[in-house]
Amino acid sequence: MANVHIGDDVLRNILARLPGKPLLRFRCASKHWNRVISDLYFMKSRSRRMVLFPLLKPFVAIDENVPAEDKTHSMVRIPYSSSEHLPELVSELTIVGTFSGIVLLAVWRPPAIPCPFRFLMCDLILYNPLTRASKVVAVMKQHSFIDHFLSYVFGFGHGETPHDLKIVRFAYMCRTSCYRWNVFDLKTSSWSTPQFTEPDFYFWGDAGVFLNGFLYWVTLRQRRFNILALNVKEMGFSMIKLFHGVDPEMLLLGSIGGCLCTINKSTTGFDVWLMKEQCDENSWTKAHSFKFGLEGNRFYPICVLGNGKILMTCSSIQFVIYDTSKDSYKTLNALETLDHIDRLSKIFNSRSVGGSSQFKVVRSIEYVESWVSPSEMCYI
C-alpha cells in the first residue's frame, strides 16, 4: 500500500482534537509528528483544559472537551509512577496552584527514618500532568511538638511578569496562635526572611487563588468571613470584607471574566458574586443565580473553571458542570469506572464545618495542557 501524505494543516487539525495520552504516543510515530506535536503554537492553539483532582495513585482528571453526550471518557486516570519525585507513601496532598500547564503540589509524607514525634515532610513539587515530569523546588519539615507548627497554607503566583514566580507559605504556630509567613522565589530558589501576622484570623482552606497579580485566601476573623489579598509584586496585604451572606460549607473562591468571584448557597440554589474592581470590597455584585433540577443530593462547588463554568459535586459522587453564560449544566458519571468511589464517598459524607480540613482533599484545579518542563520554571 502506497504511503499517504497528510498535510501539516490537516495533521494539526486532527491531533488538536486528541486527549493527552494519545499525543504522547504519537510523538514517537516519527520525527515529523514529534516536531508538529511539540510545536509551541500547536499547543497554544489546542488549549485543552483539564481539571485535576488530588486523589492518590493515580490522579483523576476531568476532560472538559468531551461532549455532554459522551460520559464514558470524561474522567481519566493520570498515573505518576514514572515520576521519581512523587513518593510512594503519601499522607496528604494539596493542589496549590497552576501556571503554564504546570501544577504546584504540596505533598506530605512521613520521614524515611521513624520519629517518635508527629513528624511529616512536605515537598513542594512542580508537576506536569501531561508529560508526568516533576521537580522538587522545596522540602520542609513539620513538628507539632518541637517547632510548634500545626499546618501550612500556600499560594502560587507571580509579580509584574510571569518570570517572577513566587510560592507564599503561612505556617501556623500553636504556641502563639499566629502565622509566620515567607516567600520562596523560583528565580533564586531561596526563602525570604520569615515575618509574622497578627493572631486574629484563621485561614479557611489551605491554598489561595491567584488573579491579576494578587493572591486571595478566605479567612475567618471574629466570626466573620473575609478575604485576605496579597499584592505579589509589592508584598503588601489588605483585608476585603464579604458583605453578602456566607454558607461556610459552600464558600468557594475563583475567577470569572477576569474578576474575583465567590460561590455561595442561597435559599433557592446558588449565587455567584463578582468583585468588579480589584481589591474593592464595595464593588461586590451578584452576577448569577442558579439551581439544578437534580433532587435528593446536596451539591458543593469545588472549582471555578474557565469560561464561567463551575464544577459541583455531592455526597453520592455525582459531578455537574454548570455554565453561567448559558444557564445550563451537564452531568459527569464516569467516575464509577474508577476505583476511587469508596474513598470519595467517605470524604464527602464526612465533610465538617470549621477549619481547612473540609477543602483539603476535595480541592481541584483547572489547568491547560502544555509541554512545558517543570525545570524551565526554576532558573538556577
UniProtKB/TrEMBL annotation:
Q: Which NCBIfam families match?
A: F_box_assoc_1
Which SMART domains does the entry mention?
FBOX (SM00256)
Q: Which domain of life is it from?
A: Eukaryota
User: Which PANTHER family does its entry note?
Assistant: BNACNNG10540D PROTEIN (PTHR31672), F-BOX PROTEIN CPR30-LIKE (PTHR31672:SF13)
Q: Gene3D superfamilies, per this entry?
A: 1.20.1280.50
Cited Pfam families? F-box (PF00646), FBA_1 (PF07734)
Natural source organism: Helianthus annuus (Common sunflower)
Location of the F-box domain: 6-46
Protein's recorded name: F-box domain-containing protein
